[in-house]
Amino acid sequence: MPPKRKSTTDEEDDEYRRKRDRNNQAVKRSRVKSKMKTEETQQRVNDLRLKNQLLEDKIDNQKKELKFLKELFITQAQAKADKLVGINLNELLQDDDNDDNDEDEGEPSKKRAKEQSKGEGSSKSRSRR
Amino acid sequence: MPPKRKSTTDEEDDEYRRKRDRNNQAVKRSRVKSKMKTEETQQRVNDLRLKNQLLEDKIDNQKKELKFLKELFITQAQAKADKLVGINLNELLQDDDNDDNDEDEGEPSKKRAKEQSKGEGSSKSRSRR
DNA sequence: TCAAATTGCGCAATGC
DNA sequence: AGCATTGCGCAATTTG
Fold it and tell me: How many of the other CB atoms lie within 10 Å of CB of A68?
């Protein structure tokens, strides 16, 4: 009596094995993928933190610049009030090279005019009678 | 024939089982922990992205404010300068590009005005004959 | 040296 | 039918 269909069991086993192997491969792929995603996410956190820091720095600089400009405005308004006394704008505006990066967080009124009125009395030659 | 020491094998088995169970528990804890950490990291990415957006918005607002103030200031100073002396304030204030890195994407407002006419004719004073 | 924690791996159930 | 994902247990290794 020859076995009628041994193939049933054997092939089933074979198929099972192959299937298992393939699944094991799939599992491996899936886990590698998962791990990569995790690491990538972690990296993203680092990048975002750095970017965040840069943005905050920029905000700080802009804030300083705004402060400077506002104070400059106040100063100017003050000058307008003092106009009658003879103050001139040179004192307030001649050296604006400080407007560049930072270093302008101080009050602008400190930068005293260098009296660069080359000709003579810059005060509009009022002495001319 | 009394069993000499069945305890050896049996207890070893018992011990093995207990050990396995404890490890299984540990594995479970470890995996829960790991998963939580992953989710937390992902959440951190979301938080950072939101924060980042807020910061960028803030930078944008500040930038607009700066632009406004500078233009206002230039206008005002220009007028005043024309009136009092003739100093060309463009020279002093025109460069509002000192922002930082990627500055204004807006129109550059044609920064030039290198015509520092200090030699003589301030725009006024000619009518006086 | 030991016990808990972590990690790689395979199995099976389940999702798609 | 078949790959992908996930929970679980085993065993080796790491950690404290």
Answer: 20
* Closest Cα in chain A, distance from residue B18 (Å): 29
Sign, Cα dihedral of A100, B103, B61, A46: negative
pTM assigned to the model: 0.61
Distance, Å, A24 CA → C10 C1' = 7
Domain assignment present for B59: yes
Phi, psi dihedral angles at B31 (to 5 degrees) = -70, -35
Q: What is the pLDDT along chain A (129 residues), one digit of tens a residue?
A: 565 555 567 777 889 999 999 999 999 999 999 999 999 999 999 999 999 999 999 999 999 999 998 888 888 778 778 776 655 656 655 544 444 444 444 444 443 333 443 333 333 343 432
Whether B122 is covered by a domain: the verdict is no
In a domain, A61, yes or no: yes
Do the domain assignments include residue A94? no
Give the domain range for residue B75: 6-83
Contact B92 A94 (CB under 8 A): yes
With CB atoms and an 8 Å threshold, state whether A72 touches B70: no
Tally of domains in chain A = 1
CA of B41 to C1' of C8 (A): 23
